[in-house]
Amino acid sequence: MDSDSSQEPPKNNALFADRPISAKMKHPMETLLKKEGVFVTKIGDMVEGIMLEKKGSRIFIDLGPMGTGILYGREYYEAQDIVRGLAPGDKITAKVMDLDNEEGYVELSLKDVGEERRWKELKKLMEEETILELPVLEANRGGIMLEAEGIKGFLPASQLSSKNYPRVAGGDKEKIYQELQKLIGVVLKVKILDVNTIEQKLIFTEKGQQQEDMQQILGKYKNGDEVEGEITGVVDFGAFMKFDEAGLEGLIHISEIDWSLIEDPRTFLQIGDRVCAKIIDMQGNKVSLSLKQLKEDPWAKISAKYKKGDKIRGKVTKYNPFGAFVEVDHEVHGLIHISEFGTESRMQAELELEKEYNFKILLLDSKEHRMSLGVIIPSEIS
Question: pTM of the entire structure?
Answer without folding.
Answer: 0.49
